[in-house]
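Now for my pick.
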Amino acid sequence: MTDDTVLAAGCVLWRRSPTTGDLELCLVHRPKYDDWSFPKGKLKRGEDALAGALREVAEETGHRCAPGHRLPTAHYLVDGRPKQVSYWSAEALGGRFEPSHEVDRIVWLPPDGARDRLTQPRDRALVDDLLTVLRRRWGRGPGRC
């Protein structure tokens, strides 16, 4: 990591579908980039990465969440600058989405649907990372995932 590395954090936010009980992942749509991703954002100066991830989830989705296992950190370039995004799994505890200029839509999708909708290929691996964590948590798996 260099001094000009952009530090960010986010969560792979999940829940059980209120209608079917199946696993669903939350994706956010950012109109500025017209992309679909997991909730994430830049850390404030001196902010702890997990605290920043939880803040970003609340700001972008309107949901409170319980953080779980740490997921792999993403490293990539944005406009020639290195960016490092720390991720956690997080179970949604409830809330209400309000569209904003930063995030105008969210969707809750099953893992395969989320993988297909994600804009960046690097984000797709996080779906598998989350499923691995949840399978360990529930033994054979979280059911229908």
About this structure: The chain has a mean pLDDT of 94. The chain has one domain: 6-138. Residues 6-138 form a domain with the Nucleoside Triphosphate Pyrophosphohydrolase fold (CATH 3.90.79.10).
